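Case study 2.
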Amino acid sequence: MLDNRLVSPKTLLILKVFIFLIFYIIFFLYMRLIVEDNLSLIVFVHTLMFIIYILSSYRIKWGLYLFIFLIPLLNFHAIPFVRRPRYIILFLFFGLFLGFLVNSFSNYLVNYPNKKYSFLFDSVLMKLIAVFTGILFLSCAITIFKYSNFYPFITNDYHNLAINVNGTGSTGSMIWTIRYFYNYFIGFLFLFLIFNVIKSTKDILHSIIAIISASMISVGVVLYQYFVNPYLGNVRHWVQSGRFNATFTDPNALGGFTILLFPVFLGMILYFKKWYMRLIFFSLFLFFLILLLLAGSRSALIGISLAAVIFVVLFIIRGLRYLRVRMASWRKRKKALILSIIIFIILCLILTIAYLVIFQKELISKSSMIDRTLKSVETGIYHFSKYGPLEGLKSISNYRYIFWGQAMEMFKDYPVTGVGQGAYILQLPNYLLTERTGFSQVDYSGNYYLQILSELGLPGIILIISIFFILIKRVSGYFITRRRSKTFENKDWILISLSVSFIAMLAGLIFGPHTNFDEIQLTFWLVIGLMIAYVKVQQINSRGNIKTLKISNCIRFSLREKLSLSFILFIFFSVFLFNSLTTLSINVNQNLYDRKGNYVGWQNNYGFYKEEISKEGPFSWAAQDASTVIEKKGDKIIVPIKDAYPEEPDKELSVKIFIDNLLVEKTALDYNKWDNIEIDIPQMVKDHFTLTLVFNRSWSPKELGINNDTRVFGGQVRKIVFIE
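Prediction:
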């Protein structure tokens, strides 16, 4: 028989190893030089990544289940030699996705020409994600260049400048920006992977069982923290607040996780028909509730309460339908309704007695969540009754209203583009100071939607809401089809629970951008991926009876869509680049003033050495790049510069002079003569401006054998003076 395979199994194995080694080296260098200078951590992470890659490249579902199991477990500080655990799961995802790509491509090579090499996705959803990713990439790239002070387009060398009034450095800010680009992007990649890997309801169940199994380990850790050592993987601030993080970055991340898994547990209890399976998952659910109580997250309580209300409404609707079918006469319905009311009243009385007699307040207060909730309610009622609804909201918001207000201020200043992807928390110190809020704490925006609005402007928030709307539309369309056909399968409880989890998280995100944590972002998009994969599986199995998803293997934009997309991206790019060169740039931001007109900016001064005296008078050596902040005292300045190279050079010295980021002068200097360069200060400059000198060449006394001075010189500069 003729073998049509493009490659042999041995060649395919070599190809897989070769591909892995290439990316392994890239990830190793990234972690070694940028993320974490910790050899033990690097070995640990790369070993796990290698295991996941090998599993994924041969059996992608095995790799996926292992990765899902690890999502909640590698994010706290109790892991030996780990100082920055939030990066671990991110690198493991790289291994998973690389294995997924290699697995898909190798299957194509082995089965050629009988199998097409293609992926599946919902075309409408993927278009929105593609546009959002494009805006995200542009915002990330320009933000990085902004923090590098547009090196190499302005200066010869990179300088680690302070980018805000708190002195946050450029290098750390760029790493922060890249990290949050990955945080957004991995969610979309995870959705794409799940949609293509999950082939049946059984695969969805295995994925859910993997995440539930991991949550039980988290329960064990949080119980150890509560009864034995509260500082295991936790920090003093949270311990003193009576809050625990289990295996998560902090208690807020744990709270976000409980929002997502609470409905999933209920769905599993309802899905299984056998009593012992329901008993097993109900028992696990009771243990899971410990995480909710000890996390102390009020936003988690809100999200879970919403999920509980949705399930109660669903039970009532299904109960009424059951009564309508089973009890034809009104007399029987009336009796059943009266009996249900009596049972409900009895349950309420039992719970009230339990609260007053069995569970005394001292015992209840041991739960951080209940204690914080009761105090919040008491505080809110007091301030509401005495000062009004606005003060009542402020009193229970834990300063969220301040962060919300600053996010809105950023949006008002930059409605088209926002302040840059991941830049809210970096710009916040400047806004707090200029607004004179009297508040200096730096934290996240306290609201997922306001964070996107402040960082990516109107295009970002419109796109992300559109993505969520399409997801809801796809699921609701499935249930509408089921209702029309008057069919409801017990396994549909899986989709109901995933959908409720998604909706509850959307509500929880109003009170905190929980997806900033990689483990919550991945769990959130795991829920979304399983939710859409379930609809896909049922649609494929229905043989055309269900047409909810627009399943395709390619993205095709119409001419109108291409033109519109190009226009949107061009406008976003142009406006954000202009803003980054002007009011959002490091140089211009040093001109900060508060609302009363007081100067509150910071100053990045570099490249100008200590003043010296020569026969010609005082001067300062300037490095090849030199910058300083000057108070404006006129409309024109004279910058005296001299080419003081020890011997006549072969190449003339030229200098570029920037005011803020605007090139105002470029001139060649005469050798060994002072050039008094007159510069008109641009009208847009405020009371302070950044002057930057960039020379085309430099020299060092030690390199020329003059002395042991290792300083690098560009030219000599005298005192800069203003003239009328």
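Residues 1-6, 356-365 have pLDDT under 50 and may be disordered.
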